[in-house]
Amino acid sequence: MRRQSRIREEPVVSQDTITWVGMDVHKNSIRVAAFFPGQPEPVEWQGATTPEAIRRLCRTLRREASEEVRCCYEAGPTGYALQRQLRAAGLGCTVIAPSLTPIKPGARIKTDRRDARKLAELFRAGMLTEVHPPNEREEALRDLCRCREDAHQDLTRARHRMGKFLLRRHCVYDLTKRNWGSGHLQWLHQLRFEDAASRATFENYLLSIDQLMERLRQLEATLAELGSQEPYREPVAWLRCFRGIDTVTAVSLVAELHDFRRFRSARALMAYVGLVPSEASSGERECRGGITKAGNQHVRRLLVEAAWHTRFRPALSLSLRRRREGQPVRVIAIADRAQARLYRRFVRMTMRGKPSPKVVVAMARELVGYLWAVLYPGVMTQGN
Question: Residues with Cβ < 8 Å from 380, sequence gap 6 or more?
Fold first, then answer.
């Protein structure tokens, strides 16, 4: 989703020549506060979000500013379109992580005017945290992955509705142990109800399931096609060498993280996806809690799902062997080490009485380190 990194002021540019602009952005309006060079108080105004209004804003800032203009606004539902418009007009624009913006404990008044001014002041002081926005192509692939995730959630809800409806009619499927397989679907299509109301309800639920399953198949086929193209082909193929990670998961991980060069270490990536312990220590007291759950929740969910496969003994299935054909020896070696180490740690922690969900989260955190070693450029393989 968003990469967090400290904003660093360029030493070659004097602070006295920079115009600092904070913007509180909404759907239909932008509140602007600009600190022009030599002025202790900001100049404030409000504008619209139409393309013409954005062009007027750019002209005003270029006309009033002496040299360089640096704008910022908090990331939100409006996305990164404003940043792209400002940069296309030649203005510097930074998107800020709202969860890491400093807040005064005693402040009880919040308005758009105050928010814009506070952003400009903190931006000038270097106390804001920048996010790493994707480009338009990366954002489009990420939206497609999340569309597929939404379709999968809708299908789960539709299946639950059908299951509860059939249970109320005491229609229980017991021909096989697994529901929603081919046998179960064939059994559903053969069911008939005598009264018109029950028949209409059942046909509606069944139609919804069929449509969602077809949507899911089409979305997964599109993801597989995009994942086989540049620049995603190589990292997706490398990720598929790990057990528990196939095409959809691999494409989703690449789309959500979209630039591994910004993570200087595996620990940085672990912290970014919220898989490190929280901590509230002070003085001699040291207190650690559950994982922070910060950052990208989509990546965290995918990693935890993949980590459930670490409970099985290391093995090479036929599908995994096919996914590894033609891949670099370095990547396969890292994937094998991950499979062996994570299984040993899973067994060891389980034998100590740790609950399985907690163990799986710990395995997901370690899995991040192996994925980083594969995808981060310039990382060499090392021994255990």
Answer: none
Q: Residue 54: pLDDT above 80? A: yes
Please answer whether residues 338 and 373 qualify as being in contact, where contact means their C-beta atoms are separated by less than 8 angstroms.
no
Residue 273 phi, psi (nearest 5): -90, 5
- What is residue 306's predicted lDDT score, i.e. its pLDDT? 96
SS3 260: helix
Residues in the chain: 384
Q: Is the pTM of this model over 0.90?
A: no
Residue 14, SS3? coil
Give the bridge partners for 23, in sequence order.
32, 73
Please give the pLDDT value at position 65. 81
Neighbour tally for 97: CB within 10 Å: 19
Q: Residue 41, class by beta-carbon neighbours within 10 Å (0-12 exposed, 13-18 middle, 19+ buried)?
A: exposed
How many helices, marked H, and strands, marked E, lie in the chain?
A: 13, 9
pLDDT digits (tens, 9 = 90+) for 298-342: 999 999 999 999 999 999 999 999 999 999 999 999 999 999 999
- Report the C-alpha dihedral over residues 31, 37, 38, 44, rounded to 10 degrees: -10
* Average pLDDT estimate for 226-242: 94
Q: 203: how many CB neighbours lie within 10 A of its CB? A: 12
* Cα-based torsion angle of the residue sequence 224, 226, 227, 231 in order, rounded to the nearest 10 degrees: 170
32's tokens: 């602007």
Over 50: is that where the pLDDT of 140 sits? yes
How large is the greatest C-alpha to C-alpha distance in the chain, in angstroms? 83
Measured between alpha carbons, how far is 162 from 155 in angstroms, rounded to an integer?
11
Contact present, 141 and 257 (Cβ < 8 Å):
no
Residues 6+ apart with CB under 8 A from 208: 158
Other residues' Cβ atoms within 10 Å of the Cβ of residue 321 = 9
CA dihedral 138, 139, 140, 141 (to 10 degrees): 50
DSSP string for residues in 191-254: ---SSHHHHHHHHHHHHHHHHHHHHHHHHHHHHHHHHTSTTTHHHHHHHTTSTT--HHHHHHHH
In the prediction, which pLDDT does 378 show? 59
